[in-house]
C-alpha cells in the first residue's frame, strides 16, 4: 500500500512542500494529496496590490501540478485528528475525511484583531484574497477626500498604506503604529521610509494604540479619535485555530511546535511549515511569520520526510535571512539587508532599484511555485521499510 502524504494549504509553504516531495519520492510508493480551499494559488505578498485594483495572474492549482503526481483536492479543512491520522474537510460534495500516513500542515495565518472591539465588524483586511477583494470594492466607492486609516506599522501596514496612497492620491491616508515608523530598520532605511510617506502625503500617528474601531474611524487608548470612512487593520497575524484544537503540541499563539526538521515534537507523523509552525532557524531562534520563512521551511520539511522514508541522511537546518523587502507603491521600495538572525545591517537599497529587487523576488517566488517540474533535479527514490537503518549518504 502506498504511503499517503497529505499537505494542508497551498500557499507558498504548502505548495512548495508538495512540489518538492513529488521530486524526491517515487510515485510507485507514495501518494501526495494537496488540499486547499481555493482553486488557485494566491500570491499573498501581493494582496495590497489586489486591494488597490491591480489584477494578478491566475494560477489554477490543477494546472500548476499537472504531470507532477500531486493530487489537488479543493476543500476546506475543518479539523485534524492527530491520534487517528485523519483530516476532516468540506468540499463540493459535502463533509469528508482524508486519511494520512504523513501530514504536512501549512494552513498559514490570518489577520489578528487582538480582541479590539469593532475590528471584526468594521475593519478591512489584506491577509487573504477574499478580504483584499472586499477592500478593493470599498475603495472603489470612496469619494475624493475621504479619510482612510491603516492600523499597524509592520511590513503589511507600510505596504498597504503606501500602495493605497499611490493608487488613490485623492484620499486622506493615515497610518497608526504602536511604535515609531520602521523602528526596526537601519537609519538609512528609516530615513527613506519617512521621505516616502511625506511624498505620498500619508499622515503618521506614531506611538498610538487603538482601543476600538467603528464605522466612523478609530478611538485611541488615550481617548483621541482618528476619523476614517475605511479602517484597514494590519496589526499582526494569527494562525488558524485548527491546530490548537488537536492533541498536537502548540505554542501560546497556536503554532505547531516543531524541531529542526519541521517535525512535530509531539506527533512524529506530522510536519508543520510556514506561519503555522513555531520553528527554529539555523541559530535556534524562532522564525518569523513570512514568505521568507515559509519556503525554506517547506523545503526543509520535504527533504526530511523524503530522507526518513527513503533511508537517507536528514538535512541540516540552514534557514536564515538575507533581507527584508518593503514595497512603497509600484516604483519605490526599501531592501533592508539583515543578518541570518534577521537583525538589520547598516546597509540598505532604496528607491527604484529596491523596487526592482522586490519585484524580482516576488516574481521568482511565484514562478518557482508555478513551475514545479522545472525546479530541482528529479531524484524520485523508493521508500524503505521503517526498520531499515538510515544511510549516511546525502
From TrEMBL:
Cofactor(s) in the UniProt record: FAD
Keyword terms: FAD, Flavoprotein, Oxidoreductase
Domain FAD/NAD(P)-binding: 4-292
Keyword Translocase among record annotations: no
Keyword Flavoprotein attributed: yes
Family as reported in the entry's similarity comment: Belongs to the NADH dehydrogenase family.
Protein name: FAD-dependent oxidoreductase
Species assigned in the record: Streptomyces millisiae
